[in-house]
Amino acid sequence: MIWLVGGIITMCLSMLMAVILTSGIRGAKFFKAAIYMPNIISAVALATMWIQYVFNYDYGLLNQIVKAFGGENVRWLGTDLIFWAMMIAFIFGSVGYYMLIFISGIEGIPQDLYEAATIDGANILDRFFQITLPLLKGVIRTCVTFWSINATTFFLWTKMFSPINTETATIVPVVYLYDTVFGGKGVVERDAGAGAAVGVVLTLIIIAVYVITNLILKDSDLEY
Question: Of 16, 67, 136, 190, which is most buried, counting CB atoms within 10 Å of its CB?
Answer without folding.
Answer: 136
